[in-house]
Amino acid sequence: xxxxxxxxxxxxxxxxxxxxxxxxxxxxxxxxxxxxxxxxxxxxxxxxxxxxxxxxxxxxxxxxxxxxxxxxxxxxxxxxxxxxxxxxxxxxxx
Length: 94
Fold this sequence. Notes:
The protein is an all-alpha fold and 94 residues long. 78% of the residues lie in helices and 0% in strands. It has 4 helices and no strands. Helix 3 runs antiparallel to helix 4. The longest helix is centred in the C-terminal third of the chain and has 35 residues, at 59-93.
């Protein structure tokens, strides 16, 4: 079942540049972001991002912090839901 889910997931994201491992890691990062939302003691990214965003002396580090926030947002709201949607479709069809 998981091989079918993975094959359909990779077919859905075939136009996105990068290796398959990179695409799966985006799903895992999205899962960790949601776990941190529901389990605040997890401290996956928020602890390190607060350090980056509080460095008001260096604008470049703050810029990287905002880029990381945008990447985490994309993983949380695009990559993980697309994988879960395929999983739920396969589960419903069985």
